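>> received
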Amino acid sequence: MPSASRPKPDPACLAERARGAYLGLAVGDALGATVEFLTPREIQHQFARQGGVHRDIVGAGWLRLKPGQVTDDTHMSLALGEAILACAGRVDALACARAFDAWMRAKPIDIGNTVRRNLVRFRRSGIPEAPPSPHDAGNGAIMRALPVALARLGAPAEEVAAAFCAQAHVTHHNALSDAGGICLTLMLQEALLHGTWKTLKHHARALAQAHAEYAWEDGRRVDNPSGYVAHTLPAVFQAFFAHDSFAAALIDVVNRGGDADTTGAILGALAGAWYGEGGIPAHWRAALDPDVARRCATQAEALLRLAPISAPAGPETARETW
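>> returned
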């Protein structure tokens, strides 16, 4: 496993990892969507001719996607990124709500129930922040953490946390979801800048210490993870820390089934930030819808240009934020 610390990257290196994170999100989404809602046993049966392992971007799945097509994970992230760019790097709740609402009005191929419910509420009330709810502990807010991580890269942890929550609370206003999303956003930033394997794992462990629902163990798989945020992140963490390549980690997590497009998207963003664009297999990048790939790469660099980019807060500061 990678363990060496890395110096603060030069701008070209940082841009390569930013593109890797965004393209990784889309690749993970596209790969995972094929097996979304299947169990590991069903995946093994369906892909018996490939050794029982799903490893190619082929589309299909319950949404009947074209090869390289992505779902709400990528499209909502891009909508959020456009809202942040329009606000010159600020994460403004009203701008985010309007961007998400415009995306929903375009009749996306897939949309989560919690997202739909709270966007309908926004249309009626004009208030961008949903009321706190125990029913909002889904993974629909954390799947779009990457644009926040890029735009606020290097900002103090408390500011990063507030920025994540500003967009999250439009659709998911829940303390457990907030904690997981803040942790993930800080981990993305750590991977993009100068993190170490040990520091990334410290973030994940500290989250579990602060919120027992996120407890996870090396080598003990969370199979068939649901859309519950505390099922999603342990599965992602297990797969990410168990492997030493983007491909191995992503194949691991999507073949666990369940909400595989979202676990794939989140792991793809984190692994892409760590391994960089070059660490993503070329045939996966080539399989993406060209317009989606272009938008991801372009937006990653645009958001990065607005970021403060200084040394990010350490894990202890981040832990206090949760």
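>> The chain has a mean pLDDT of 92.
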